[in-house]
Design goal:
Blueprint lengths: L7 H19 L21 H25 L5 H29 L16
Length: 122
């Protein structure tokens, strides 16, 4: 008869933590060429107004997550905490922003960077 040790689950947890750490470490890259978490077709049938609202919401979430990551990394062990707790979602949000930007450019939506003045310079 075999008995399982009380620490048998520790090895599995360590393996899971290593995998999560590896995925999150890959997510720290600012290059968003490969989409792991965002759906490239998600905003295809949205109107420009809907795309702008989604972009604003994602930009707010990105700022909040970036602040949480910076705050967590100031404490001892904070790098691990920020990686496990925030970096996966941060990567998702950054990819979503990339998708929103691509779709809004393709649809020629007026977004804050492309807004034109409605008044003539006199």
């Amino acid at each position: 008869m075999q008995y399982r040790s009380a620490n048998a689950g520790v090895g599995s947890a360590a393996l899971l933590a290593a995998i999560l750490f590896g995925v999150a470490a890959c997510s720290t890259s600012s290059n968003v060429d490969v989409m792991l978490f965002a759906d490239p077709g998600k905003y295809e049938y949205h109107t420009c107004d809907q795309i702008l609202k989604a972009g604003n919401a994602m930009a707010e979430r990105e700022l909040k997550l970036r602040t949480l990551i910076q705050k967590a990394e100031q404490s001892a062990g904070g790098g691990l905490v920020s990686t496990v707790a925030y970096r996966g979602e941060y990567r998702t949000v950054v990819e979503e922003l990339g998708v929103i930007d691509t779709v809004s450019r393709r649809k020629q939506c007026l977004t804050p960077p492309t807004w034109r003045s409605s008044t003539a310079i006199q």
